[in-house]
Amino acid sequence: EAQVTQNPRYLITVTGKKLTVTCSQNMNHEYMSWYRQDPGLGLRQIYYSMNVEVTDKGDVPEGYKVSRKEKRNFPLILESPSPNQTSLYFCASSLYGGGYEQYFGPGTRLTVT
Amino acid sequence: SQQGEEDPQALSIQEGENATMNCSYKTSINNLQWYRQNSGRGLVHLILIRSNEREKHSGRLRVTLDTSKKSSSLLITASRAADTASYFCATDGWGNEKLTFGTGTRLTIIP
Questions:
Q1: B40: phi > 0 → left, psi -120 to 50 → alpha, else beta; which?
Q2: In chain A, at which residue ranges do the beta strands (DSSP E only) sit?
Q3: Which tens digits make up the pLDDT trace of A58-111?
Q4: What is the per-residue pLDDT for A48?
Q5: B52 touches A: beta carbon within 8 Å
Q6: Per-residue confidence at B5, pLDDT binned at 50, 70, 90?
Q7: H or E segment at B24?
Q8: Distances (CA, A) of A60 to B31, B44, B90
């Protein structure tokens, strides 16, 4: 089954404790991206990647890191999480870029206390 | 920055009626897409319309695009209870693979 998976689905952590949210797709997509969703603000893109070893900032990259060492994986790293990073996070992938149908993962609900 | 703004923010209609929601954006686009989201789950792609297209249909969905007004509308005909969800537009620009989503319209279908 073609899908985007994210882990963990739920995470509660404390300020400053480094964490990684994994994202993997099995569709051989070139493009992968991360979003955060907050009430009243819709989805905002954090980072995107056009291919292996190619990443670019989205609209809200501050406080986040990403890497794309393999085509299928695109982990999101919060090196020192803060409470304002409490949010619902989505990973997505598409065949070639932002102008193609995006396939979304199920989401990761992160709470930073 | 928020490229897309949906209007209205919330909409409630009776089952069987048509639902129309609008999206306005600020800068020139390459494509515009509509997505549906059920209760905090992952978004599902509905339809994509390119900047050189004016109208597109998919089943009960009709999307229009007016680049001169920088706006798009999504029409859902003969609504069903299962259409209850949030709907988002998303745009990408020429030579820019960044994808920008709007704030969404919350649609409630009353049985």
A1: left
A2: 4-7, 10-13, 19-25, 31-38, 42-51, 54-57, 65-66, 76-78, 87-94, 103-104, 108-112
A3: 999 999 999 999 999 999 999 999 999 999 999 999 999 889 999 999 999 999
A4: 96
A5: no
A6: confident
A7: strand B19-24
A8: 21, 22, 16
pLDDT at A40: 86
C-alpha distances in Å from residue A3, one per residue of A68, A72, B92? 18, 11, 23
Cα distance from B25 to chain A (closest Cα, Å)? 14
**d(Cα A66, Cα A55) in Å, to the nearest integer?**
8
Return the percentage of chain A with pLDDT > 90, whole number: 92
In chain A, which residues have their Cβ closer than 8 Å to the Cβ of B40? 88, 107, 109
Using CB atoms, which residue from B42, B88, B101 is nearest to A107?
B42
C-alpha distances in Å from residue A113, one per residue of A38, A54, A83, B10: 17, 32, 6, 31
Task: Quote the tokens at residue B53.
Answer: 């297209």
Residue in A43, A108, A110 to test binding to B, most B beta-carbons within 10 Å? A43
Residues within 8 A of B (CB atoms), A 40-99 only = 40-45, 48, 50, 56, 58-59, 88, 90, 92, 97-99
Q: If we measure between CA atoms, which residue out of B98, B81, B105, B82 comes closest to residue A92?
A: B98
Instruction: State residue B1's pLDDT score.
Output: 39
